[in-house]
Amino acid sequence: MLNFDYQQLDEIIHSRIRLAIMAVLVTVDEAEFTFLREKVHTTDGNLSTHLKKLEDTGYIAVNKSFENRKPVSRYMLTQKGKKAFESYVEHLERLIGK
Amino acid sequence: MVNNIAQQELAFIKKVMADSRQILIDDGKSLIFWGILVSFGLIVTYLSIAGKWHVTPGWFWPALIAFGWVYTIVTEIRREKKRSVKTFAGKIMGVLWFSIGVSATIFGFVGTISGAYHEVVISPAISILLGIGYLVSGLLYGKTWFALLSIGWWTGAIVMFLLLNLETLLIMVGMMVVLQTIPGIILYKEFKKEILNSK
Predict the structure, then answer these.
(1) What is the pLDDT of residue B23?
(2) Max CA separation in chain B (angstroms)
(3) Which residue among B46, B53, B104, B140 is the one 20 to 30 A from B12 at the CA level?
(4) In this structure, are residues A73 and A62 in contact, taking their beta carbons and an 8 Å threshold?
(5) Rounded mean pLDDT of A37-51?
């Protein structure tokens, strides 16, 4: 890790859980909190913290509603998030000389 | 070192993305439902025309297809509400089968009512539409065997077009069972297995 050029890496995405969230959301249009928890394999609290960070950065957007009187949060990647994810992957590919 | 870490990160991203893509699994219920419904309708029609059963009122097919549409729309709305994730591929699948359903319904009713063609043309024409649906769905599911069923639908369509007789109804029943109901059951079993594995 120490050899990474942190000035070029996106620190927000460069965390296993946030990276996993972004990778899941890039493959779907939108996903519920429960779906993300299942795919990312983490606790509710931990996932909420990371989702908040991504939301505050503007990488993801959330749509909160009630379905059958139960609160449902649906998350989706924003354009800014898509671009950030793509440039993160491009950067990794450059590092391995792809 | 940097190279290894970057490779690990990319491998991780690919794994997560591949895992998320696996959510596009059909439970096969619609295939089973429509396979049985249409087969039933075709058998009743065959028996009626062949003179073995004299009960086929004019509203039989409209009622059968209307029932099919209502059931499908209600179950799809329920399923949509329960769905924890929405994908672009899922949207394509929905639109694809909806458009095939609408096209088949128009072809089955409007054409025959207007007298533009004989009823025996309906089965092969609908087989062609189903062939498109199976090919696209199979590719989206990532299931080659499902996509290859389209060959069966198109071959059946050619055979039925060449025959154009009452027996084409029985051929269509066979196709509905072999190419629709049985694949639906296979998808349903795979879906159940996938659900169990994910728990």
Answers:
(1) 61
(2) 80
(3) B140
(4) yes
(5) 91
Residues of A with CB under 8 A from a CB of B: 1, 3-4, 16, 19-20, 23-24, 26-32, 34-35, 38-39, 67, 74, 89, 92-93, 95-97
pLDDT beyond 50 at A1:
no
Number of folded domains in chain A?
1
Residue A69 lies in domain: 7-96
What CATH number should be reported for the domain holding residue A32? 1.10.10.10
pLDDT higher for B41 or B141?
B41
Is the pLDDT score of A6 beyond 60?
no
Complex ipTM? 0.71
Query: CB-CB: which of A19, A67, A95 is closest to B6?
Result: A95
Chain A touched by B89 (CB under 8 Å): no
Across the A:B interface, residue pairs with CB atoms under 8 Å apart total 69
Residue B129 has pLDDT above 80, yes or no: yes
* CB contact set of B11 (below 8 Å; sequence gap of 6+): none
Q: Is A32 exposed, middle or buried (0-12, 13-18, 19+ CB in 10 A)?
A: middle
Share of chain B above pLDDT 70, in %: 92
* Residue A2 covered by a domain: no
In this prediction, residues A35-50 reach a mean pLDDT of 90
**Could you tell me if B32 and B188 are in contact, meaning their C-beta atoms sit under 8 angstroms apart?**
yes
Give me A37's structure tokens. 């928890």
Q: Average pLDDT of B143-147?
A: 94
Assess if residue A1 is contained within a domain: no
Other beta carbons less than 10 A from residue A10's beta carbon: 18
Residues of chain B contacting A42 with CB distance shorter than 8 Å? none
Mean of all residue pLDDT scores within chain B = 88
Residue B5 to residue A4, Cβ atoms within 8 A: yes
